[in-house]
Design a protein that fits this description.
heterodimer, A: mainly alpha, about 0% strand, B: mainly alpha
């Protein structure tokens, strides 16, 4: 009986409501229309996608406005735009990763990983293109340079950042000094990386004569970028260590510095370690500061205190901007993308390690 | 401090060794804090010191031959144009993505989507530059030709369009991709802090999801969104490699789809390796200008955040 009445008089709640399938119908219509309009202009998948998206949003909103009324239509429009924003944001990510994988994989050979560019001239590149032999020359020196400079930057920044965070959380009483430090640490996270590079170049240029470019200058530049990240991460982690732990330690007569090193830091170590790892991941890809502080080397340099040095980012940059052989740029382009692939893998690995650390040594708080 | 009241010698001896440890540790941490302040100030001082010869030099010796101001002015404008394009494109999309993650995406997937956007921030800038140079620019060159023929009467789309696509607009788009994760992650944090009761109250009054967001989430998050955009602006102003690789620079032009314009950071990166003497000091002076601009933007952004900290909790 209810069945009959329901078909005659629909419920108030489902009145003027579009059925679930309507959105798919609009989508199909938009795709067909988009393909048609794009075919008029000379078909390409990109224009088709753009037109179809526009038709879908307009059509979906229009249908909803006609059936459901203005308020529902605006709600749908907002939903479409928000979903659209996410798709638009993910597209470049997919494109970048796809490009790097596609163009970097062919160049990722043993030769590339364990040879430097020492002695490699444009003539050799030309010859490999003519003969069709595998590309010679590699990024071994750049990988070593990246590791050394990043290691030194970490050695400088971690103690400073850690101690500064300890001062902010454990020692300061909220006075003007600690407020100034907090504020300027925040401001420092926004320093352009090239300015950090110029600072290190100017500082060491003043001390050791102009034009001083070594791996260590680059490490100093990177630590200017790295310290604020370490401070912020450590500060956040120290703040969530429960006060009960500190009080228990003090009550046992333990000194403050022993409490900090034996109780507070071990409790927060997972977060600190993952923060430091993320900071390393941030500076390992920096190009501009290296460009102005470490110069560019073609061979292996294992001494950070003398001589120019290459890192993966500057290697990529120079292989693109000044190809080894100006007439046949393909080998250089291939090397650049292979280096980009290694760099992305390094950064992703560091990010993954940071998450793993954070998860494995999960905060031992009582919360 | 209790050692003073306890008279046992053994305790006092044991205490004094710990006390010196305490003193060393607290001094070290205080010094580390001060070192950070010192570094920031010495950045300004060293840049100023190395830049001084430029301000003192004969205007005819500066690149361009008309003094420092006419050298720096076009690239300051170029920097502002690039950052403005980036911000205009990235802010709405960034807010949209943040809303998607905080209010629209299925709860289970939201965190995964957040990681996905964070990946955007993890990709090094030189890779974005290479991508913009090799992939995006050739694609956009076609669109620029269309713009130049159909909308050429608008000064910013004036032809002839660049054939390589390596123009200001491309650089701005690449910068937009790079600042997007900053704007997204900051806005997301703030959207998530909207009081649940406000949202539920507005839904209970019969508001649609969009009305709820418009009336309770966005007003609450407005200062946070502004400061997120400002921080994104700071990043876009100082970004170097993407612009250095993507933009084929030149003199200041109004058209965004022609070759031309330059930004401070890219100018420094492109010329520094070969620079010496006065040119070096000129580039450092340009760096100082960039430093001052980004510092101002960041300070304003942080000030907005700290002013609203007590109820937004965003930082």
């Amino acid at each position: 009986m209810s069945n009959a009445t329901m078909t005659r008089r629909p419920s108030q709640f489902t009145k003027n409501k579009l059925p679930k399938w309507s959105i798919w119908a609009v989508l199909a219509g938009a795709l067909i229309l988009g393909a048609a309009v794009s075919a008029l202009l000379g078909f390409s998948p990109i224009t088709m996608a753009i037109f179809a998206a526009v038709f879908f949003v307009v059509g979906g909103t229009g249908v909803s406005a006609a059936v459901e009324g203005g308020r529902k239509a605006r709600d749908r429009l907002a939903t479409y735009l928000v979903y659209g924003a996410f798709i638009v944001a993910v597209l470049p990510l997919i494109s970048v990763i796809w490009t790097v994988l596609e163009r970097g994989m062919p160049g990722l050979t043993y030769n590339f990983l364990f040879r430097s560019m020492n002695g490699l001239t444009g003539a050799i590149d030309n010859q490999t293109v003519i003969d069709g032999t595998p590309v010679l020359g590699g990024a071994y020196h750049a990988i070593l340079g990246t590791l050394q400079i990043t290691l030194w930057a970490t050695i400088i920044s971690v103690p400073v950042g850690l101690l500064a965070a300890i001062y902010l959380v454990e020692y300061s009483t909220g006075g003007p000094l600690s407020r100034a430090i907090t504020f300027f640490v925040d401001v420092m996270t926004g320093i352009p990386s090239i300015v950090a590079g110029l600072f290190a170049a100017a500082l060491f240029g003043l001390i050791f004569g102009p034009g001083t470019r070594t791996g260590f200058v680059a490490a100093a530049a990177l630590s200017v970028l790295m310290i604020p990240v370490v401070v912020r991460a450590t500060e956040e982690m120290l703040k969530i260590v429960p006060n009960e732990l500190r009080e228990a330690s003090f009550a046992l007569g333990v000194r403050k510095w022993r409490t900090i090193t034996k109780v507070v830091i071990p409790t927060a170590i997972s977060g600190i370690a993952s923060g430091v790892t993320l900071a390393i991941a941030r500076v390992i890809g920096e190009t501009a500061p290296i460009l102005v502080t470490a110069g560019f080397a073609r061979g292996i340099n294992l001494d950070v205190f003398s001589g120019w040095m290459s890192t993966l980012p500057t290697y990529i940059y120079y292989q693109i901007i000044t190809p080894t052989s100006p007439t046949s740029t393909d080998p250089s382009t291939q090397r650049a993308w292979a280096a980009a692939l290694i760099l992305i893998i390094l950064v992703m690995l560091l990010n993954l390690v940071a998450r793993l650390i954070a998860r494995m040594f999960a905060p031992k708080t009582s919360r | 401090m209790s050692t003073k009241t306890v008279s046992t010698n053994a305790l006092r001896n044991a205490g004094s060794s710990g006390q010196s440890g305490d003193k060393i540790f607290s001094t070290a941490s205080l010094l580390a804090g001060c070192l950070i302040l010192a570094v920031l100030f010495s950045v300004a001082i060293f840049l100023l010191g190395q830049a001084l010869p430029t301000f003192a030099a004969d205007p005819a010796d500066i690149s361009g031959g008309n003094g420092f101001f006419s050298y720096i002015w076009p690239i300051v404008i170029g920097t502002v144009i690039a950052a403005t394009i980036a911000l205009i494109l990235a802010t709405p999309v960034g807010i949209g993505v943040a809303l998607f993650i905080s209010h629209y995406a299925p709860r289970r997937l939201a965190q995964g989507f957040g990681y996905l956007i964070d990946l955007l921030a993890a990709i090094p800038s030189v890779v974005y530059g290479a991508w913009g140079y090799a992939v995006l620019a050739p694609q956009l060159a076609l669109a620029y030709n269309w713009l130049a023929t159909n909308l050429g009467w608008i000064p910013i789309f004036e032809g002839p369009a660049s054939n390589t696509g390596r123009t200001m607009l491309t650089a701005g788009i690449v910068l937009a991709v790079m600042v997007l994760p900053i704007i997204t992650s900051l806005s997301r944090e703030i959207f998530l802090q909207t009081p649940k009761l406000h949202e539920e109250a507005s839904l209970a009054l019969g508001a649609t999801r969009w009305e709820m967001i418009k009336m309770s989430v966005l007003p609450f998050a407005r200062p946070g969104i502004i400061s997120a955009a400002m921080l994104g602006l700071g990043r876009a102003l100082g970004e170097t490699m993407a612009v250095a690789l993507v933009l084929s620079g030149g003199a200041l032009t109004a058209s965004l789809i022609q070759t031309g314009n330059q930004t401070i950071a890219a100018e420094i990166a492109l010329n520094f390796p070969e620079a010496f003497g006065l040119r070096l000091s000129e580039l450092i002076a340009a760096g100082l200008v960039l430093f001052v601009i980004t510092l101002a933007v960041n300070v304003i952004a942080r000030w907005i955040i700290s002013r609203h900290k007590e109820f937004s909790g965003a930082n």
